[in-house]
Automatic annotation (TrEMBL):
<keyword id="KW-1133">Transmembrane helix</keyword>
<dbReference type="Pfam" id="PF03901">
    <property type="entry name" value="Glyco_transf_22"/>
</dbReference>
<dbReference type="GO" id="GO:0006506">
    <property type="term" value="P:GPI anchor biosynthetic process"/>
</dbReference>
<feature type="transmembrane region" description="Helical">
    <location>
        <begin position="7"/>
        <end position="27"/>
    </location>
</feature>
<dbReference type="GO" id="GO:0000026">
    <property type="term" value="F:alpha-1,2-mannosyltransferase activity"/>
</dbReference>
<comment type="similarity">
    <text>Belongs to the glycosyltransferase 22 family.</text>
</comment>
<dbReference type="InterPro" id="IPR005599">
    <property type="entry name" value="GPI_mannosylTrfase"/>
</dbReference>
<dbReference type="GO" id="GO:0005789">
    <property type="term" value="C:endoplasmic reticulum membrane"/>
</dbReference>
<keyword id="KW-0472">Membrane</keyword>
<feature type="transmembrane region" description="Helical">
    <location>
        <begin position="204"/>
        <end position="228"/>
    </location>
</feature>
<keyword id="KW-0812">Transmembrane</keyword>
<feature type="transmembrane region" description="Helical">
    <location>
        <begin position="160"/>
        <end position="183"/>
    </location>
</feature>
<feature type="transmembrane region" description="Helical">
    <location>
        <begin position="112"/>
        <end position="132"/>
    </location>
</feature>
<keyword id="KW-0808">Transferase</keyword>
<feature type="transmembrane region" description="Helical">
    <location>
        <begin position="248"/>
        <end position="273"/>
    </location>
</feature>
<keyword id="KW-0328">Glycosyltransferase</keyword>
<feature type="transmembrane region" description="Helical">
    <location>
        <begin position="53"/>
        <end position="73"/>
    </location>
</feature>
Length: 493
């Protein structure tokens, strides 16, 4: 890394480290339950694994990265809850900053590339989170910078293939994005098709797959091919649809515009220019085609989420930054500053609101719960009456305390008229509580729920007093989520 690149890296590192402290909100459960919670159980031998890990549809590669960090903390007696929370985020922030530098190199070391990546609200919002999709996006940027683009003067090494193979075993659906790019490589490479396939793609792919199978089988306790299990459950059996179904156009009408925000404008203009002057922008045309191909493929899947589009962000920002770079050569300083200001403010607003205001209560509540648990471990028992996985758990408590929370296991056994535990509870909260906590039974020491639920669970709260009311959001996204998270303590605790 040359001195110029190092200075750029420091800029990106400051931005990513800042996001650790400025992004204080809950996004999706997988940020914790598919990474940190698994790592915590691996290292400290207590915690909870979701159903995916028992069925082997997830690779242990990502949790093991965080488990290694946790183990270092444990050996050095530095395994405080704050270190377990912030350590993984610092690790991801550093990788994201490095991937930003790779993006900067790929773009031709243009200032607009720095600005577009550093100011992107969605990348700021997710760049330091412990999501598999965040890691996927960072590795995608690194791989794109090593991809042998025609006319870019990049050495045709196989390093990008190693990253693609790793991405595939971590998240098999990434293949959708890389299919058109790899076909492009196979078509325009100076090497023969046979040499590329038999000498690079196939051996690298098999080697990474074999290593991942060995690793996952050891961690799982029996032979497992997580890639196959992932595809079987999510594509063949469509289990993912259990967690929400969106219309076919959702990515185009909602998802894609939302993650781009104000950046959609330069991207749209750049796309029209690329299509109009196809022969002058062959690489950009392939990138645009890859974006369209990937979104089209994802649109056929019933379950859709904003985070699934994260790996496309480097491609989109590349197209936008290239256009802005060309445009700024002829634009006046005034127009450049106006456009820069509009893009910056247009990204700061959603980054601030979604990063610091919206849905923060389910994270903020973990600190008082941790303090309560550490004070009286044996007597403390926490009952979370919330939509399943609304909060992290042992990775943030770091106390081996008794917990109970509503589960949302999908219909794995094809049971007719199946209803998961969370839905059973919300259909009739009082009845569920009577069945699970009979009159003469032991009640939990603390109940954690949203304020909107309180009127419906008076059957259990009569023996409790409210000790915490924590702001969550002013725009609840469902009827089951309230403006506040409340904590009730049993009066005889």
């Amino acid at each position: 890394m040359c001195f110029k690149d190092f200075k750029v890296f420091l800029v990106f590192l400051v931005v990513r480290i800042a996001s650790i402290f400025l992004v204080q909100t809950f996004f999706v459960p997988d940020e914790y339950w598919q990474s940190l919670e698994v790592a915590h159980k691996l290292v400290f031998n207590y915690g909870y694994l979701t159903w995916e890990w028992y069925l082997g549809i997830r690779s242990y590669i990502v949790p093991l990265i965080y488990a290694a960090l946790y183990k270092v903390f444990q050996v050095l007696s530095l395994d405080s809850a704050s270190n377990l929370i912030f350590g993984p985020r610092v690790l991801q922030a550093c990788l994201s900053a490095y991937s930003d530098v790779c993006f900067y190199r790929w773009s031709g070391t243009k200032k607009w590339a720095v600005f577009c990546v550093a100011s992107s609200w969605f990348w700021f919002f997710t760049g330091s989170r412990t999501l598999i999709n965040t890691l996927e996006c960072a590795l995608t940027s690194i791989s794109l910078s090593k991809f042998p683009w025609p006319g870019k003067g990049v050495d045709e090494s196989s390093s990008f293939i190693w990253i693609i193979a790793l991405l595939f075993v971590i998240r098999p659906t990434c293949a959708l994005m890389w299919v058109p790019l790899c076909i492009y490589h196979l078509t325009f490479s100076k090497k023969s098709l046979l040499n590329l396939v038999m000498g690079h793609y196939l051996p690298i792919g098999l080697m990474v797959l074999i290593l991942s199978v060995l690793l996952d089988s050891i961690c799982h306790g029996s032979f497992i091919v997580s890639v196959f299990e992932f595809l079987k459950f999510n594509l063949l059996r469509d289990i993912a649809s259990f967690y929400g179904v969106q219309p076919w156009h959702w990515y185009l009408s909602v998802g894609f515009p939302a993650i781009l925000g104000i950046n959609l404008i330069p991207f749209a203009v750049a796309s029209m220019i690329i299509i109009k002057n196809r022969t002058a922008h062959p690489n950009e045309l392939v990138i645009l085609g890859t974006i369209i191909f990937t979104i089209t493929g994802y649109s056929f899947l019933a379950h859709k989420e904003f985070r699934f589009l994260l790996p496309l962000l480097p491609l989109v920002l590349y197209v936008s930054s290239r256009f802005l770079s060309v445009w700024s050569r002829k634009a006046s300083n005034f127009h450049i500053w106006v456009v820069t200001g509009i893009i910056f403010v247009g990204n700061v607003v959603p980054a601030w609101y979604l990063g610091m205001v919206h849905q923060r209560g389910t994270l903020d509540v973990m600190e008082p719960l941790r303090e309560i648990s550490m004070t009286n471990v044996k007597e403390t028992s926490l009952l979370f009456l919330m939509p399943c996985h609304s909060t992290p758990m042992y990775s943030h408590l770091h106390v081996n305390v008794t917990t109970r929370y509503l589960t949302c296991l999908p219909n794995l056994n094809s049971i007719e008229n199946y209803i998961d535990e969370a839905d059973l509870f919300y259909n009739d909260p009082s009845q569920w509580l009577r069945l699970n906590f009979p009159v003469n039974g032991t009640l939990p020491s603390h109940v954690i729920c949203f304020d909107v639920l309180v009127p419906y669970i008076s059957v259990i709260l009569s023996g409790y007093q409210k000790i915490h009311q924590i702001y969550h959001t002013n725009l609840p996204i469902s009827k089951r989520i309230g403006r506040y998270v409340v904590v009730y303590e049993r009066t005889d605790f």
